[in-house]
């Protein structure tokens, strides 16, 4: 079993670095996550943050009435709010027993993998949309590739993943993760380091 704690911390740092590089004029830019532009993707991350943190802390999760599309969470202080959310999740994962049992009705380790995927894959989406590069080390990408394949069928059934797209077998692990999640093929091999 891989220790996800250092991978989460590294992915969080890189995700926040990308977020700090997003300017106001880029909020309407399209992303490889085709149903979201930059603003909507940031809204998605801000919306689900409190639920995920409560789940990891094994507390009662907040009601998500209204849905993320009705929420408008990207204001002038969105970067500070996103930083608070990410740091809150890191603190939750630093708590004893955070990776044990269940979190929000799912295995806690699966939730950790999902959050790692959110930070890396959506971080890459944001980086690609705003002319940046997201760096993902081989260990993290390898863990995510295993997790993405394990989640793929359920992810597609719930509309979270699209159909897998073809990439070369020797493509970098991050490119293969992106392909499993169904990112458009022309994006999957761009901006991958």
From TrEMBL:
Residue span, Mycothiol-dependent maleylpyruvate isomerase metal-binding domain: 8-127
Pfam families for this protein = MDMPI_N
Provide any one GO MF term from the record. Answer: metal ion binding
> InterPro entries in the record, alphabetically?
CHP03086, DinB/YfiT-like, Maleyloyr_isom, MDMPI_metal-binding
UniProt-recorded name of the protein? TIGR03086 family protein
State the organism of origin.
Amycolatopsis acidicola
């Amino acid at each position: 079993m891989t220790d996800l704690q250092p991978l989460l911390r590294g992915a969080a740092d890189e995700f926040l670095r990308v977020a700090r590089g997003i300017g106001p004029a880029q909020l309407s830019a399209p992303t490889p996550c085709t149903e979201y532009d930059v603003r909507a993707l940031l809204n998605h991350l801000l919306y689900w943050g409190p639920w995920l943190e409560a789940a990891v802390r094994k507390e009662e999760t907040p009601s998500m009435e209204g849905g993320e599309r009705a929420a408008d969470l990207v204001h002038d202080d969105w970067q500070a709010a996103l930083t608070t959310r990410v740091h809150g999740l890191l603190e939750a994962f630093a708590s004893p027993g955070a990776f044990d049992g269940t979190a929000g009705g799912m295995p806690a380790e699966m939730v950790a993998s999902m959050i790692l995927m959110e930070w890396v894959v959506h971080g890459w989406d944001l980086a690609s949309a705003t002319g940046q590069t997201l760096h993902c080390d081989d260990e993290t990408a390898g863990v995510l590739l295993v997790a993405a394949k394990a989640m793929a069928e359920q992810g597609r059934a719930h509309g979270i993943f699209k159909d897998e797209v073809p990439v070369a077998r020797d493509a970098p692990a991050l490119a293969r993760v992106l392909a499993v999640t169904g990112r458009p093929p022309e994006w999957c091999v761009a901006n991958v380091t």
